[in-house]
Amino acid sequence: MSDIRSTIEQKVFDYVNKNKMIAPGDTIILGVSGGADSVCLFFLLLQLREQTDFELHVVHINHGIRPDAAEDEAFVERLCGQHSVPFRAVRADVPALAKQEKCSEEDAGRRLRYRVFREEEEGFSQGKIAVAHHADDRAETMLLHLFRGTSTRGLCGMEPVRGDIIRPLLVLERSEIEAYLRELSADWCTDATNGTDEYTRNRIRHHILPYAKEQICGSVVANMNRTAELICETEEYLRMQTAQAKKLCVQDNRIEVAPFHTLPRILQKRLILELAEQCSPTGKDISLVHVEDVLTLFEKDQNRTICLPFGITFRRQYDRVVIDDGRLQSTAQALPEFVMTPIFPKDTCEIVQKQYTKWFDYDKIVEPLEIRTRRVGDYLMVSDGKGGMIHKSLKDYMITEKIPREERDSIPVLAQGSHIVWLVGYRISEYFKVERNTTHILQVECKKDFPVGSRTEEKDEASC
Question: Nearest Cα to 286, choosing from 268, 271, 274, 298?
């Protein structure tokens, strides 16, 4: 065995043991794309398996982006066959998935990979997911996060162990990976998209890091990774402190103000960020500006509400701050059943005036209708008293009509996008009202009465 090969193997094995990545009896789900990084990890795990008793399963995902992706799949299948390693291939249309999930192809591919890995992992009691991120990847991620603005967690780049995910190659640079494969006389596939500057990460990889190595410090990647390890240790300590702070201050969905004030500022910020991210469907999109906004609720003894993305709200109520998960309100809320029936008006007819049955001008409904509860940005059209209409936010309407705050999130609405067609139990939007020239009508009946206080609903005076 050559010195290069033995040195690299020992370096990786020591890193795996130091971070307690693999234990006897584990089943390692390894993602292998066919590129140099994942092929290197494949061979290293084969060698490590001779020292530690664990199972190895390979998953390959064909993203449906490159015409030659089938060749990569065949390569990985042959590799696994040669070494008697269980192999599973999954084919997907990542461009279509990105459009569906309204994200970049890079992000859609990442989400898909981890979904597939976890599906494969489910059948094993000691399953772990191994990915082939290495030291250069970590340095790139640190820079990417730093340029966009981040926390200490983001400056970790990538952690050696994160839950069930392990990264044995973080101790190796890309040059060491390729040197190891050359020593084995092993082939690998080259992804043509890695050579382009289409993705932000690639621009960092091709231009910024090489410049830093040449003009600033040749060991920049190693130095950044040492810094990342120190930040990870700091982050782990702060995680433990935040967990203790949560026990002290948080009960169910409430933050008690008095104990919150005893926390250092950094723990206050981390606690709010963690609680908000737990409500977010992506676990992301909550930034420092949102955290700073929420902190203002603790500075003045005034009952106010701060709205975050996804309908998440933090609301000050006297000596506590209540967290409402807007995402759950629209899905978990027990909404009533609605029956929608297109009808054609006769020459003369009276518009129904039942509180839970309404008529709408069908021709003005140009997008799918949605049954939900209120969201930030909702509005309706109301009469201006002069035969015209004016725009009014749903929030302002509810305040004007003195609808109790505690009832507002539970009232069902019929909506076309952000335009409220019907605030059930109260009123419909002026825009959708049936008029004398209406030719098609949509009748909507709410099959379940909802308590809406003592207010009497406005009656529809028009007739068709």
Answer: 274
Could you tell me which of 371, 351, 367 has the C-alpha nearest to residue 359? 351
Hey, what are 357's tokens? Answer: 């049955």
> Please, are residues 294 and 286 in contact by the beta-carbon 8 Å criterion?
no
Token pair belonging to 26: 């584990």
The continuous run of DSSP H or E covering 18 comes out as helix 3-18
Q: Which two tokens stand for residue 173?
A: 């640079």
Q: State residue 281's pLDDT score.
A: 66
Name, in order, each residue with C-beta under 8 angstroms of 423's C-beta and a sequence gap of 6 or more. 380, 394, 397, 411, 413
C-alpha distances out from residue 356 to 353, 403, 424, 431, 459, Å: 9, 18, 7, 19, 12
The answer to whether the CB of 14 falls within 8 A of the CB of 156 is no
Helices (H), 250-349: 257-261, 265-279, 288-295, 326-332
Q: Are strands 419-423 and 313-317 parallel, antiparallel or unpaired?
A: unpaired
Q: What's the rounded Cα separation, in Å, for the pair 193 and 199?
A: 9
Structure tokens at 438: 């209406």
CB of 415 closer than 8 Å to CB of 374: no
Helical axes 3-18 vs 36-49, angle rounded to 10° = 80
Question: Chunked in runs of 10, what are the mean pLDDT values of the chain (464 residues)?
Answer: 89 96 95 95 96 95 84 94 95 85 80 89 89 96 90 88 94 96 93 73 92 94 95 93 95 92 96 89 75 92 83 88 64 63 62 75 83 88 87 91 84 90 92 87 76 43 38
The position carrying tokens 């201050």 is 249
Helix (H) or strand (E) holding 83: none
Please enumerate in sequence order all residues whose Cβ is within 8 A of that of 1, keeping only pairs 6 or more positions apart, or say none: none
Question: What region, left, alpha or beta, does residue 307 occupy, with left being phi > 0 and alpha being psi -120 to 50 degrees?
Answer: beta
The C-alpha angle 42, 186, 7, rounded to 5 degrees, equals 70
Start-end of H helices in 19-83: 36-49, 69-82
Whole-angstrom CA distances from 128 to 11, 20, 158, 393 are 21, 12, 16, 49
Give the DSSP H/E element, type plus range, for residue 391. Answer: strand 389-393
Side-chain half-sphere CA neighbours of 196 within 13 A: 5
User: 374: which 2 tokens?
Assistant: 């209120």
**CA–CA dist 140, 135 (Å, integer):** 9
Residue 407 CB neighbour total at 10 angstroms: 14
Q: Which two tokens stand for residue 435?
A: 């008029």
